[in-house]
């Protein structure tokens, strides 16, 4: 934690390369010599933060062996420990450190530069960094079950920051997003370079911030309904700039065809095949002849058949070892060199609107839950390149069921969030959905059992890195007490009521 609080890693050649882009068109052109740069600019630091964040949630460890397993999109081809909830402590530590050191501190330093310079548009640039900080803390607090270093986390003079509760973090995030949406001014300058996500487009950042407010509010709505409803109302108020409402508005980090700037999962698959499609996911797609199946997965070699790997099978010769004649492997949609990292997209927003209407929140929406549900499916399928006639045929097979709205929305939102392993897992926990038509379970228990005695079905959180107990012991112990006295993956997140 000391490293996370005090040090900022040197800007590498790769990231300086990335920082030269003016928008999401790419970052091939080098306009800064990384070997001669005396001081990083705020634009370069923003690019570094966006690159580091996207890598942290996309790579083979945090996405492949954590998120994609816990959401049961993928199974292990041989080394199954993580799918059975036995983590590698060093990778957990790296994930934690990357969020704090290589994302949040980079943004913090970018803001320092803007505050010192006061160049025209600095308020917009400060707000964009602050929104991204909120997005990062949102991941951290949900991954680790609530309490995290937050209010004191970026104070370089305090190497033992207090852990704020999950409720406190969420309240802070909503307040921050409210403030930044009001600060953003499309009439003023913004980032001319460095913003890989939106090219400095202030209106796009407003829509992203409001859409993030919807996600945060719905995640906590079962325990704080009044506060959540108010946040939703503000997010949907047209005076605040709108929400993501077209695919072009979606927040996507776009990778390039060649290393080191290609999709991190693509690079992983060049070395070895550790991941296959999971049997629960493949079976559910096949059950309703989902036209996204051939987009998401590869058929068995020289066939038109799709087979998912048994989830959580003990390391043995019974595993496929990634043999494409035995099991379906992920297709380019997930592991292609340029497959984008999705931060928040149109399909998710549509499903959130469906849930708002299903809950009858009365926040000014004019569409029905069924309408938004269908629009969510259609948005996902269009992004996957599915033809309109196939979309319409599929919608008839999976009609919206108002009496089982959590099952209808949850199951389809889960499919649409394929590749977003961490968020797919969190939505699985929150909505506890089953198949709305048959009522049967979608997910499977690990075939050969959990390797964590505290976890019988699915990990509810990621345990804190063990080094926190020694580096920030007093506050770490207080945080663990708030989790019931155990740094356990079996302890529910504070918003996970059901």
Give the total of domains: 1
> Largest sheet, described in full?
2 strands, antiparallel
Q: Quick one: how many beta strands?
A: 6
Derived from helix and strand composition plus strand pairing, the structural class reads mainly alpha
For the biggest β-sheet, the strand order reads 1-5
Would you give an account of this structure?
- The chain is mainly alpha-helical.
- The protein has one domain (2-30, 42-258, 340-482): Serine Threonine Protein Phosphatase 5, Tetratricopeptide repeat.
- It is built from 20 helices and six strands.
- The strands form three sheets. A two-stranded antiparallel ribbon has the order 1-5. Strands 2-3 form a two-stranded antiparallel ribbon.
- It is globular and about 60 Å long.
- InterPro entries: SusD-like_2, TPR-like_helical_dom_sf.
- It comes from Dyadobacter endophyticus.
List keywords for this structure.
20 helices; Serine Threonine Protein Phosphatase 5, Tetratricopeptide repeat; SusD/RagB family nutrient-binding outer membrane lipoprotein; 498 residues; single chain; TPR-like_helical_dom_sf; mainly alpha; SusD-like_2; signal; two-stranded antiparallel ribbon; 3% strand; two-stranded antiparallel sheet
In short:
By secondary structure, the chain is mainly alpha-helical.
Which SSEs are present, and which pair or pack?
Blueprint: H1 2-6, H2 13-18, H3 42-58, H4 60-70, E1 74-76, H5 89-117, H6 122-143, E2 148-149, E3 163-164, H7 166-183, H8 202-220, H9 225-236, E4 251-253, H10 264-271, E5 275-277, H11 279-287, H12 293-296, H13 332-335, E6 341-344, H14 346-358, H15 369-383, H16 388-397, H17 405-416, H18 421-431, H19 468-471, H20 473-482
Helix pairs in contact: 3-5, 3-6, 4-18, 5-6, 6-7, 6-8, 7-8, 8-9, 8-14, 14-15, 14-17, 15-16, 15-17, 17-18
